[in-house]
Structures are given as C-alpha cells and as structure tokens.
Amino acid sequence: MTGSTLPSYDAHADAYTASLRLSVAPMMDWTDAHCREFHRLLAPGARLYTEMVHAKAVIHGDRTRLLAKTALQSPLALQLGGSEPDALAQAARIAADHGFDEVNLNCGCPSDRVQAGRFGACLMREPTLVADCVAAMAQASDVPVTVKCRLGVDDDDDYDAFARFVDGAVAAGASMIVVHARNAWLNGLSPKENRDIPPLRYDWAHRLKRERPALPVVLNGGIAAQALAFEQLAHVDGVMLGRAAYHDPYLLHQLDAALSGAPLRPRAELLRALRPYVEARMAEGVALKHIVRHVLGLFHGQPGGRLYRQVLSEGAHLPGADWALVEQALAATDAAAARRAA
After folding, report:
1. CA distance 48 to 45
2. Cβ distance 220 to 148 under 8 Å?
3. Rounded CA separation 205/190 (Å)
4. For residue 266, is the peptide bond before it cis, meaning its omega torsion is within 30 degrees of 0?
5. Distance between CA 277 and CA 68 in Å, rounded?
6. Which stretch of DSSP H or E encloses residue 136?
7. DSSP characters for 249-293?
8. How far is the C-alpha of 58 from the C-alpha of 97, rounded, in Å?
9. Is the whole model's pTM more than 0.85, yes or no?
10. Direct distance between the N- and C-terminal alpha carbons of the chain, in angstroms, rounded to an integer
11. Helix ranges (DSSP H) in 179-274
C-alpha cells in the first residue's frame, strides 16, 4: 500500500500520542532493555513495552535491573502485573519517577504463575477489582494508565461482558485498551498454546471501537504481515505486534517506515546502528550473547539468513566474543546473497 491510502502518524502530536498507531507487545524473556534498544532503531515512531514486572518486584526488587532503559527507548510503557491496588499504585508512582511514558496493567497473561498470584488473565473475571486497581494507579501517577486484556477466559463468549469489563476500567481511569483478540484458556492450554489455539476475533475489537469512538483501542494478536496491519488500522487506532516483531524484526521497520513516510534502511545499516549500544553495554560487563539473541531474526527469509543466525548463535557465547562477530555474520550474509545473485 502506498500514498494517501496509508493511515499515518499525526505529525503534530507528541511522540507518545503519535506512537499509538504502532507498538510492540510486552513479551516475557524477550522485550528486555537490549531488545527495546534494537526495536527503537528499527521503529523510531513505535511505542515500546517492557516485559511484565510484578508490582511488588518494582517496590522491593532491584530497580536498576528491572527498570533499566535508555532515553532513546521512549515512548516506553512499563507493564505491571498484580492485583493489589495499593501495591500497583506505588509501582505506578515509581514508574513515573523513572521516566516511563505509560503504565499498563496486565489482564491477559495466562501462565500458571500468574493464575496462582491472582493476576493476569484471571482478572478478566474480576472487573470490580480491575477498576479498583486502575483507579489507584491513575490517582498515584501523572502518566497514562492503560489496560491490556483478552476477550474473556476459557469458554467465555459474551461480548457484552467483555465490553462491561472495558467500560469499568475506562471509568476508573484507563486511557487506552489493548485488546489481545483471543480468549485466554486457563484450563487445558499452556501459555504457548494460548498464543495460537484460541481463535482470533478481531470483530470484537472493531465493534468496541465502533461503539466507543472516543476510546483509543489497540489490536494485538496474529498480526504478522504489513497488509493485515493496515487492514486492521482501518478499524482500530493502533496495532500491536508480538512475536512477529521478534522473529521478523524487519517487518517492524517496514511498518514504521510506511506509517511515517521515512525511507526503508538496509538491514545491515540498522544493525550497525546498534554497535555503540552493544559496545557500551559490553564495557559494563554484559556478554554479547545477551544482546545479539534479539537480532537473530533480522535476515528472516533473506539469502544467507540461516548462516547469519548460525554465526551469531554459535559464536556469541564464546569467551572474547565482540562486535567483530556481528561483522562476521554480516559478511557471511553478504557472501550468500552474492552467490545467489551470480
């Protein structure tokens, strides 16, 4: 899609408001500070999210590690887990003090650990508690409070109940709703299966936006192609990429460029832009393997892409691995592409 048919960023809005159109989902073990630095280079206009952090960990844990970020990563939201209004309020206040642009309450994660702690997706069945949590967070913080949820739990199939859940959160102070357009099955499916097996119901998110035109609605779930993203942007305010942004990160760059009108940059150029960050972190003692694991998908579907991943995967954990290994991976990719073109 090209030209005026593309839904575009609002050039006159602030960066946080403009970033509503495209975001990267919070993903446990993936969207850490290293991953977000890379994603920001790929998508200067997108909204980024941290991994989910429990409110009590924010209060009592190692904030230097848990809330690590750079100024480049804004607009950046901290996703919180929890179900105690007072703890969530305190964590939201800490997030604001640390410069986060948004605090997001997780009402969608289906893991066993989340269920045992009475937070995540099981909160879909406690709308009054969610409203109390949101109200406490909104009162404690001067940054936007948002909610990420599913359509329901297990065999729930009641749009009106879903809409009432959303309305309760919004009335309590939520400024935006991110809809992962599947149910969360807490009985019988693993967290991994919950990302694929429950059917997608984009129509519920479309209806929510149609019936509540003033409410910002972002759609998450199964968006792995540029055409699908723009198809959904005709119905909702924003799209949130999950695993696609991680396994095929150049898609994130393509979407951001299409929305902003910026030219596409070559994959190697984008990766080399990460070098100052990599070398700064390595000087602090971070091993190369902890950073480059997030860039393995950059050449997904490209000539030499498998060799690129192999070089990085096999070499990054070795003693003394440094940026030279990344250049070696890029050179191997270039050589494979040249052989294919010959």
Report:
1. 9
2. yes
3. 24
4. no
5. 13
6. helix 127-140
7. HHHHHHHHHHHHTPPP--HHHHHHTTHHHHHHHHHTT--THHHHG
8. 12
9. yes
10. 31
11. 191-194, 202-211, 226-233, 243-247, 249-260, 267-272
Average pLDDT over residues 115-139: 91
Would you state the structure tokens that stand for residue 94, as one six-digit string?
Answer: 């800490």
- Which residue has 């941290």 as its token pair? 50
Distance CA 195, CA 185 (A): 10
Q: pLDDT for 223-249, tens place per residue?
A: 999 999 999 999 999 999 999 999 999
Q: Residue 301 is which amino acid?
A: G
> Are the C-beta atoms of 144 and 176 separated by less than 8 Å?
yes
Q: Catalytic residue, from 35, 107, 109, 133: name it.
A: 109
C-alpha span between 289 and 78 (Å, rounded): 24
Between CA 39 and CA 77 the distance in angstroms is 14
Residue type at 12? H
The H-or-E segment that residue 297 falls in is: none
Rounded CA separation 261/38 (Å): 20
Which amino acid would we find at residue 310?
A: Q
Q: Is 35 a catalytic residue?
A: no
Residue 303 has pLDDT above 60, yes or no: yes
Reported as a single tens digit per residue, the pLDDT across 246-293 is 999 999 999 999 999 999 999 999 999 999 999 999 999 999 999 999
Q: CA 280 to CA 283: how far, in whole Å? A: 5
Per the CB < 8 A criterion, the answer to whether 146 and 106 are in contact is no
172 CB burial (10 A radius; 0-12, 13-18, 19+): buried
Question: Is 319 exposed, middle or buried (CB count within 10 Å of its CB: 0-12, 13-18, 19+)?
Answer: exposed
Degrees, nearest 5: CA angle 238-107-81: 110
| Single-letter code of the amino acid located at 21 | R
How far is it, in rounded angstroms, from Cα 184 to Cα 205? 15
Closest CA to 103 of 26, 13, 165, 184: 26
Report strand pairing: 76-81 vs 102-107. parallel
